[in-house]
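Weekly structure sync, notes
Attendees: PL (lead), two postdocs, one rotation student
Agenda item 3: pending single-chain targets
PL asked that the sequence for the first pending target be pasted directly into the notes so everyone works from the same version. It is reproduced below exactly as submitted, 743 residues in total.
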Amino acid sequence: MPAPQFRLRLDLALAFCWLAALAAFAQPVPPDLHRWLAPQTWQRDTDGPVISLGHAGAFDDTHLFAPCVDSQDNVFRLWYCGSRGKVEERVFDLGLATSKDGRAFEKFANNPVFRFGDGKHSILTPTILRDGGKLRMWFSATDFVNGKGLHTLHESSSTDGIQWSPPSAPLLTNVYAPTVIKLGRTYRMWFTRVGQNPWVICHATSRDGRAWQVTPAPVLELNQPWELDRLFYPTVQRVEGAYLMWYGSYWAQAKPAQKTALGFAVSLDGLKWHKHPDNPVFRPEPKHDWESHYVTSQSVMKLPDGSWRMWYASRKKPPFNNKYFAIGTARWEGPKASVGPELTLPDAGKERAAFLAAQSELRERLRNELGIPKQRVALEPEARGRIEHGDIVIEKWLFTSEPGSHVTALLYRPKEIKGRLPAIVLTYGHGGSKSTWEHQYAGQLYAKAGVACLAIDPVGEEERNLRGGMGTRAHDNAQADALAAKAGRLMMGKLAFDAMRGIDFLEQREDIDAQRVGVAGYSLGGATAGWVATLDTRVKLALICGWAFDDITLRTKLCTRAPNSLMRAQSTWADYAALAAPRCAMLVMNGDADTVIDTDDDKAAWDGTRRAIRAIEGAYAALGGAGKAQTWFEPKGGHRPYFTYQAALEWIHQHLGTPRMTLEQIRARPTVNAGEWLDARKVQLERLYGTPLHWRGATLPDLGVKYFSRDELAVLRVEEKGQPAFTLEGWLQQISAKTAEKQ
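Predicted structure, written out during the meeting:
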């Protein structure tokens, strides 16, 4: 009688709870962010406000706040919000002032330069950036007189900063004090969420600056003793790979009460923030009557000399008739200069023993955090048949990864074997499995070159899917991730561990050289290959394709974001990559037009990857592995399985050996376009990747590879399909039961 199927029935609220717990794992401040949390010493360098209230009857004769500063051609332009009349009757318009040095400003003669246009709504808290040859401004608006406090987000644009287009229709509601930056094609916004208490800071993204997707949870909440009631006025800058935020709050310890001050936080991804331990970093100055009470609604800019300047609105002590009173400025020298992406591990050239010890300690820590099991059960491999095709053999195997989780696998090898073979274990992208075209191609390609290749179904796909589906991405499920995390396992840990068990399987074979085993994969498979290469000291080669060693991966799906967040909380990307030194020949292969990974389309992901690999070259060389860590990029290439490319075969030849092909033979092989090869075999492709930029544009060595149907490559018997021992659900059931026993 079939065993009962385990269904995912976890309540979504519980799932999100566990996802939040996952995010909370990364509490330590990443080493390369430490310098931003050193003391900030802001110095006022003017004798009074840089902008004061206007003359009687001017649009800004009573209220003045929310500076937004831009600099071009040695001129600072400061836009600000001003109004007149009683507080309850105020309607803010936008003014402009200019300066040569950022301290002495002159107001524009024809202020205001922008009004909402209906005589009721105020222009509030603008953020302005240069985009496509024009200025784009986002601002919040509300009707203080007749409204109920609803704040809406709007946009306007200008070519000169004086003439602005009419306000857009509302883009979002309950948005106040937006700050927007653009990274490649992506607009990112942080804002104060109003409409409910407490006020918190939230995040949103957009491809065009108009249609915004708000991140579900706030990214900054009240959790430091100085913060009282609400957070507001975030200002975000991205510098040297770090996101910097200055933000305001009511100052809980201030005497007398009802003062505001500015805090600071830093982030790798703009979502997980680390607050300054000495917050608030900027406080009112009691000696200055124009700013003795409030410092808030700031604009911050890094200057060409490396220092920073802040412009901020201020309020004098009560009693006052002005909601805000003046705009001041201050300067900070900035943190100590960055030393770049150097290793924080000891110098391998000078402290070899210390480097190896620190390397081992970090590796073990990461293995534990991913939930890699310490104990391994017997594999109990079971042969399930074979296919012969020309000069290669495809063996079908079943083996045990861990209790309650069995692996379906194919082993590609040459038909004629002379001596022990080098071998490669494949890892998989989202939706990939042993029968998908690129993995079939790689298995046969390697075997024809004399390299054994193990292709396994990743948990949740194909024969390890509950219903036998391919391309399901079943592992990429919030409930599944939550259950795994609750059991002390991360999904990446499971994917990596199954690949490690594949190495165990290869080590038991008499025809495999256990000293020449590597891993290869792309996309999620590239991420997995990276983890296996860094955490398993048996791995001698890694082809990490369609993946970046860069913080952009902290914005990917949970299966990759969670482990990378854990890793980045305690090491740099260079530290992580250096775990493979010097034993593993690591080639990171990408297309420089791959916007699936380089989602900002600004090459920053690839620059970061190059920096990380350059940073470990010294460690590799000092340990006897010079030249074994490199990057490779295909010009104008997209998201492609580069582990099937000629360059990949050359790397394998150099570092594992290709017993059946010389380097000259590899380089002399003709190539075939992947799209033409697939069309000739009537292979249906996913819409996302089946394009000329991605799969169809790939260039493959032509070695007479055959395409097999999934039924031809099937390992399981009909009655075994969907059984718990072969499914994601069965594995989750097993580890959940163990967790329950411990409790």
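Discussion points:
- Residues 1-26 have pLDDT under 50 and may be disordered.
- The two ends are 31 Å apart (CA to CA).
Action: rotation student to compare against the earlier draft before next sync.
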